[in-house]
Write a structure and sequence with these properties.
Two copies of one chain form a homodimer. Chain A is α+β, with helices and mostly antiparallel strands. Chain A is about 45% helix and about 30% strand. In chain A, strands 1, 2, 3, 4, 5, 6 and 7 form a seven-stranded mixed sheet that branches. The first copy, chain A, is globular, with a radius of gyration of 20 Å. The interface of A and B includes residues 13 and 122 of A.
């Protein structure tokens, strides 16, 4: 942990990317017993109170973009492990840093999210893409926005398993099936979908004002010809999903700062 | 790079393990053009002038232990890449630090050396073992001794290749063959062997004193019944190889400090 008094004068001598190193270390210390409190503490250490986390990627049925607010971030990370992952870390290669008045941006075009899966057999999944992080430039140096655009992924299996089952086409076929979609488990994907649906209904039911409710539906009608739940689950394409998710986020931020 | 004046007062606020993170970053910045000068600068940044690097592992024919001195360390790292590796980094998990008067020891029982190979196909090799590092406790915080004891290794191949060749037993057999021995390429293994042979002959020819030469051979005779070159290439077992290598190293250190 950072000494606060010392930190105030020399915030971080090291690069902001060091925070990702620290995050990796923290993720290493997770155990089977790490509960919601543990994940809340994790998120509090690395994310601002009004932080957002965005994941963009392409599935078979088109581009997706999920943005979740601060309260949903702890659970996002925990779903990764609940989906069967035993290890998670991020490798940033050739990242670029830019300093602004109150923030630092780390732009890494060669980011790899590495997850290790124990079942049904040892698998390492390398999910590659561009990670853009915006940090608040103070002594806590926490993340304001996390945006990971997944480009490709690779599932790696031990060569030894190949050697063992080279004679068995059935086992080989089973072994050749991916266990993730774009590097994400179904557990995490479902969570992201749920987040967006929940957010939609939250904002819809939060207001009893029929005019605002009507505006939500009108906004939807403008951007999509599909039924509401299709937009909500994020499969409505890049820009539409973006609109639906970002609008309420901005409202949240205002409330938080007010 | 560390600001020297500032560094003198607050050497490293962060853990010494952070030096391995910095080493990983430096290794990332290697290119095809990185020449001997680049590797010398690399070693100078991370290793003390009298540093030693030791690798212990078991091959089919028994336990090996290679210790190389500071002058041979740059080339050791470069051989890794010359052997076909495109990426090299170290992941330390649950490492323990202990502070002494003038040094810090990092003992990591769950260290993974990760190498990425591009040929004959994409392969990730995870070499796991115990890494014990001794750092000098000053503002440079460089490594005095590096000792990596390899426990096991795992070669990982893309699942997609499996899917492509599931019907072809010949290709599968080819794919199931390891490209390293205990995670090390033949390039690196040969270099380690050469180092030890060279060191033996160096110390043998450095002295024209037949008595000292005789002592070398006598020491050999005491510890081995095998011909000299067998001991030199490190296959003479754990303790014997240790004896042969460490003795001259100590001489080197004395000369360096005198």
């Amino acid at each position: 942990m950072l000494d606060r008094d010392e930190g105030r004068h020399t915030p971080y001598m090291v690069q902001p990317e060091y925070r990702i190193y620290e995050m990796n270390k923290r993720l290493q210390s997770r155990t089977e017993d790490s509960d919601n409190l543990w994940w809340d503490a994790f998120a509090t250490e690395f994310f601002e109170d009004d932080a957002t986390l965005t994941l963009s990627f392409c599935l078979e049925d088109g581009p997706k973009r999920y943005t979740i607010g601060r309260t949903l971030i702890p659970r996002y990370f925990s779903t990764v492990f609940e989906g069967g992952v035993t290890d998670l870390y991020y490798i940033l290669k050739h990242s670029k840093e830019s300093y602004h008045n109150s923030s630092i941006t780390v732009d890494c075009d060669q980011c790899t999210m590495v997850t290790q899966h124990g079942k049904p057999m040892f698998t390492k999944v390398c999910t590659e893409g561009r990670l853009i992080l915006e940090f608040t430039f103070d002594d806590l140096m926490r993340i304001k926005t996390w945006h990971f655009t997944i480009r490709q992924y690779r599932e790696l299996v031990p060569r030894s398993i190949l050697a063992m089952h080279a004679q068995d086409p059935q086992v080989l076929e089973q072994l050749s099936k991916n266990i993730t979609r774009m590097g994400l488990t179904n557990f995490t994907l479902n969570y992201l979908r749920l987040c967006v649906i929940a957010l939609f209904f939250f904002h819809l039911t939060c207001t009893t004002n029929p005019e605002i409710q009507h505006r939500y539906f009108k906004a939807h009608a403008r951007t999509s010809q599909q039924p509401p739940q299709v937009v909500c689950d994020g499969s409505g394409g890049h820009h539409r999903a973006h609109k639906w998710v970002h609008k309420p986020e901005r409202q949240n931020q205002k409330q938080g700062k007010g």
